[in-house]
Specification:
With 233 residues, this protein is of the alpha+beta class. The chain is built from 4 helices and 11 strands; from the N terminus they run βαβββααβββββββα. It has one domain: Clam (outer membrane lipoprotein receptor (LolB), chain A), CATH 2.50.20.
Amino acid sequence: MLLPTLLLVAIAQPGAPPLTAPEILQRVVQADKDRLTALAGYSVVQHYRFGNTESGKTAEMTVRISCSPDGVKTSEILSESGSAFVRSHILRKMIEAETEASLKGERRENRFSPENYESRLIRTEIWEGRESYVLEVNPRKPSKFSIRGRIWVDAADFAIARIEGQPARSTSFWVRSATVDLRYGRTGRFWLPYLNRSVAQARIFGFTEVVIEYSDYRTSLRQEEARVRPAGH
């Protein structure tokens, strides 16, 4: 599963017995399959902001990410400013890593599923006004695209609402350690990422923060889905 992805709503059955952590992940997997069945592709504008208080280095980059029906991503840089080194060696590498992670094999190996992750249900809580399951997750085969930490799964929709943790392996030579807080919001039938905050210790600059803000989503449905979808939904 990808950082960031789109998840289709999967309605929970009322009165269902308590679920185990693997059962919750399996429902998330099914929601992802439903999304792939319905979605014909999407694009989003991602605005990156890099800041380092120790060196005073800053940089910004705005990118249009387009995702094909099979989940493979491409990117187009719309604007950029600030430190050339940061843009070249950190922000561009982050964008390249996202594109690489979207390749079919990587998506299968790193999505949150019982096959890819060991999981433990910690608790349920209200997250942004909705009941959620909080799971501790650890990848069975750690990679730079997998996450070790916690995820919030919406209890009604079985969609990822939040991911918090660390990459299981380093994503870049220039980054020693990093923590990620990725948040999703419900827009119509889909759950879409709206904020990604990463805090890292970079080899040259020390403590750094990268914030990604997501906007201007453009989604398209497959023709079969569009024909059966009621008007105004």
